[in-house]
Amino acid sequence: MSTCRFKIVVALLAVLIFAGCEGTEREAGPNGELIPAAAQEFVDVPAPVGFKLEDAYSFSVPPSRMFLLTYVGKSDRQKVRDFYKNNMKQQGWMETCESTFGDTLFLDFVKEAEGCTVKIEGRAGRMRVTIRSRR
């Protein structure tokens, strides 16, 4: 009987240890806002924690770069909008325009001689964000 208890205790400890190693990155800030992921395709083009890179294309010949990044994740349009308005500004981007077309929201940004458009679409619960560079 004590061998059985020992095995159960070891199994429970293993589950607790491995569950804690899965990931330590928080999904949201203290007020429920989205926060930037630690590892990103481009350092100055943020993606929210929990959003997965679905498609990426990039081409760089300094000082120019072209990119098209698509992320998908669970959130709502307002939180994703607020995330990009706040975090792009922190990365040195200046917002130039916000527009909507149906259920799709567009945010335009410039940084030095570079520009990009953030396209936010989808229904509550599953959002798609496409970030496209422009010259």
What does this protein look like?
By secondary structure, the chain is an alpha+beta fold. The protein has one domain (27-134). The chain is built from two helices and six strands, in the order αββαββββ. The chain has helices at 2-20, 77-90, and strands at 52-61, 64-73, 94-101, 104-111, 114-123, 126-134. The chain has a six-stranded antiparallel β-sheet with strand order 1-2-6-5-4-3, with helices on one face. A hairpin with a 2-residue loop joins strand 5 and strand 6. The protein is globular, with a radius of gyration of 20 Å. The termini are far apart.
Query: What is the residue-averaged pLDDT?
Result: 83
Q: What is the helix content?
A: 10-25%
The profile of the biggest β sheet is:
6 strands, antiparallel
Q: How many individual domains?
A: 1
Please give a quick description of this structure.
By secondary structure, the chain is α+β, with helices and mostly antiparallel strands. It is built from 2 helices and 6 strands; from the N terminus they run αββαββββ. It has one domain.
List keywords for this structure.
135 residues, alpha+beta, six-stranded antiparallel sheet, 2 helices, 6 strands, globular
